[in-house]
Amino acid sequence: MNQQIRHIMIVGGGTSGWLVAAYLKRNLPPQVKLTLIESTKIGPIGVGEGTQPFTMQFLREAGITPDMWMKDADATYKLGVEFVGWHNKTYFVDNDTYETFVIGPNTTTMPYWCDKGSKEFFDWLPAYRLAKANLSPKMSPELDHTPGLVSPSWDAVHFNAFKIGDTIRQMLKDKIDYYDTEIVEVDKNDDGVERLRDVNGKEYSADLYIDCSGFKSMLLEQALGEPFVDCGDTLLCNRAVAMPTQYTNKETEMFPYTRATTMKYGWRWTIPIGERVGNGYVYSDAFISPEQAELELRQALGDFTTPANHLSMKIGYHKEIAKQNVLAVGLSAGFVEPLEATGITFTTKAVHFLMESLVKSNGVWDQRSRSLVNSRFETMFSEIVDFIFLHYKLSNRSDTDFWLAYRDMPMPEAVKRRLEVFDNDLPKTMFMENQFQMFHSGQWFEMLLGSEYFKDRFTVLDPKYEKYAEMYCDYQKYKTSKVMEIFPNHSAYITGLYDK
């Protein structure tokens, strides 16, 4: 199928559907018609409430600046993820802060910190120091602790998963063809999907269909029969139970990071957003029942009255998210548990891959376009799976069958190949083709250092490099100390920002 794209139809709303619509509306040529069909009776999944830094930049590229959505979505800032109970000491994986590692062409601070050890590194890490002091990463929307000298900083955020889609819907629904109805039938032909039919018998057709129907993957998996690749052999957690708690002291409890705390059969997220704290237990139902998981979560929170929301997660992906005239985005394409808040990234990256392919093909949806999207997505997905797997595999927790299962699990060959980069010689750049593209090598280093992966490593440093790295890290430490003197409390900053 080689089709000149004149009409794109998004099937499904929620966070993914409306993010896709916003980006395409802003970036497609005006002659390309855009339609979105959703049933507002079907709510979003809302597994996690955190993002990677890509999301903020994606929204800017869609013409949606932070002042247009953050308040309505109860958003707060996120400096990274704190991992509690995964190893002997708590560790932190921060966002894309080049200043942490890059000190020259093909030169990083990694060998220096590998020699110093994990305690010194995490005591020094600028983002972690700000996070644990409950400080805002900003003094104002324009003034950030990592100055955006050319373009705005790439902020990660927490938000209300049930509000973000509604917020974008209100901005956009009058600017595209929009239908609030439920699709119940899909007709196919040799090119893929021929037409859709809703509960009232009304028919819809387009050149390219974007499947945002969630885990059921109505168009890609159900209609076109694309097989689902289950990743449950390496990522054991497949369910979650979530419940909010209310603030008792926003100044101390609205911290600017996600906390991931190990539990008996998985881990628990703590995500402070504008009006409440999001909590959830991600676990494997092969080791504990939903009722037992809810009780364990309630005991951890000390809350035995707030209603709990139970969720089933489909962990895996489709090798061909672009097939015939369908592109699956978000949960329809694939999903991994929310340990590293990558759920929305599957949407933003897939849309970037789509736009890249259409630019290269001059707007034609052909096999080359589909191959590019599929290759990019699979590379990204496999890295995310490997990164999350290693958090579990390298953990020294061993008090339940769940944690012992990970300890006894063999290391996949793909993971071994990534680790060889750190075994042979530490990375000299932040991103490496087909290795570190979703998470830069500094984030891999933080995870490995926090997991004591380098504890037996013998490092010999060049004296000139060691002096330079020490000078650079001392400068960053001093700079962070000065930032901490003048930057506001996170809660105070958010309250002041939203009261304007």
Describe this structure as you would to a colleague.
It is a single chain. The chain is of the alpha+beta class and 500 residues long. It has 16 helices and 27 strands. 37% of the residues lie in helices and 21% in strands. A seven-stranded mixed sheet has the order 6-5-19-20-21-18-22. Strands 12-3-2-16-25-24 form a six-stranded mixed sheet. α1 (14-27) packs parallel to α6. The longest helix is centred in the C-terminal third of the chain and has 27 residues, at 367-393.
CATH superfamily placement of the largest domain = FAD/NAD(P)-binding domain
The overall pLDDT, averaged over residues, is 93
* Subunit organisation of the chains: single chain
Which blocks of ≥5 consecutive residues have pLDDT under 50? none
